[in-house]
Every structure is written in C-alpha cells, then in structure tokens.
Design brief:
This protein is an alpha+beta fold and about 210 residues long. About 50% of the residues lie in helices and about 10% in strands. It has a single domain (about 5-25, about 45-210), classed as Glutaredoxin, CATH 3.40.30.10. The protein has helices spanning about 5-15, 65-80, 100-110, 115-125, 125-130, 135-145, 150-160, 160-175, 195-210, and strands at about 45, 55-60, 85-90, 185, 190. Helix 2 links the parallel strand 2 and strand 3 (about 85-90). One of its GO terms (molecular function) is isomerase activity.
C-alpha cells in the first residue's frame, strides 16, 4: 500500500465523524463471557480463542472510509489469522440514508449464519448504493436472495423491531465508548487513535508478540 493511499484512508476517517451525540449515552450492558469491547452476541469473524488479542471495529456500511478500509482490514485478517479475534459492531451514522437499512440486512443475514457474506457484499457494492437519498432495502434484499437465504425468514427479521434494537445496542455502546466516526477500532477494549496505518499494525504486532514491548 502506498503512502498516498494510507494518507487518504486516514483523512477519510478524520473527515467522516458523527458529532450529534446524546449528552449522556447509556452505559453498555454487562458482557460476562464476551470478548473485550464486545457483547456476548457480537459478530466474531475470526476466533483465535479467549486468550488472544481482540480487535473490534465499529463500522457503518455506507461510510466511505469504512469502504476504503475494508480491503485493508481483510488483508490484516489474513496476515494475523489465528493470532487475533476480530469482531464487527454496528455504528450506522444518522447522516447516511441507507446505513440502517444495510445494518438490518446484515443482522437479518446473521440470523441465518451469513453475516460475513452479507458484510462482504455490502462493502464490495458500496459504490453502487452509497450516498443515495432513497431506500436501497430492496437491493439489499436481492443480495440476500443471491446468498440463498430463506427469504421469508429474512423479511421477518428485517421487519422485526428486535433486529433494529440489536443494531442500536451496538450504536449505544459505541456512543458510550466515545466512538465519534467510523471506522473506529478497539484493541482489547482500548480505543486506538490512528494517524497512519502503521499505528494499527504496530498495536497488533505488540499485542501478538511480534514486536518487542515498548
């Protein structure tokens, strides 16, 4: 990855921030048995075991910075496979018209054990639907069909208020944890302040023992 690309990614993260946060967000619910920075029902894409470092990403599927980071994150997941837990949490920004629709599609797919496939599809197609000011819920439904999901169950999940509540639990936790933009990463429960990509890889190297402790 060139320095120019890294600079653009970091600039996007800095530029896309959510500033209209409630003054007193509710503290996260108890997460006994959950990985650091996650809930027991969080989506764990890579499971290296409870003793491995845990990287949590709060994301918005419509966020351009998240879309730009997606291939970077996928590369890091491959590089650190077996050494870290990787967890995805929702943080749909209100300024993005289809961010909640996308999160609902992902959560409905998760109920059929296809979260990762929908997660990938949403980011890979983001340029086709992102930043539009009309609902793309039907497009997301077509993705579910392509994935071979039970469409009656998918439709019921999207319409169920409990599905949106599940998304909002992540959003509320993110607010409490001072997530102000996406993507935001936490490593073992500690928020990472990223100015360049190496800040993330250095933290992962240190956590996995690939670099000497500072």
């Amino acid at each position: 990855m060139t320095i120019a690309v890294v600079v653009v990614l970091v600039a996007l993260v800095a530029a896309i921030a959510f500033i209209n946060r409630p003054e007193a967000p509710t503290p996260p619910a108890a997460t006994d048995g959950a990985l650091p920075g996650a809930r027991a029902n969080s989506h764990v894409l890579d499971d290296a075991g409870p003793d491995a470092p845990t990287l949590v990403e709060f994301l918005d599927f419509e966020c351009e910075a998240c879309g730009a980071f997606y291939p970077v994150v996928e590369q890091l997941r491959e590089e650190y496979a077996g050494d870290i837990n990787f967890v995805v949490r929702y943080f749909p920004l209100p300024g993005h018209f289809n961010s909640m629709n996308a999160a609902l599609a992902a959560e409905a797919a998760a109920q059929q054990d296809e979260f990762e496939a929908m997660h990938s599809r949403l980011f890979e197609t983001q340029a086709e639907w992102g930043e539009l000011r009309e609902s793309r819920a039907e497009l997301f439904r077509s993705y579910a069909e392509d994935l071979g999901l039970d469409m009656d169950a998918y439709d019921a999940a999207v319409a169920d208020p409990a599905t949106q509540q599940r998304v909002e639990e992540d959003f509320n936790d993110g607010q409490y944890l001072n997530v102000t933009g996406t993507p935001t990463f936490f490593l073992d429960g500690e928020k990472l302040e990223l100015e360049q990509l190496s800040d993330l890889t250095d933290a992962l190297d240190q956590a996995t023992g690939r670099a000497p402790q500072q």
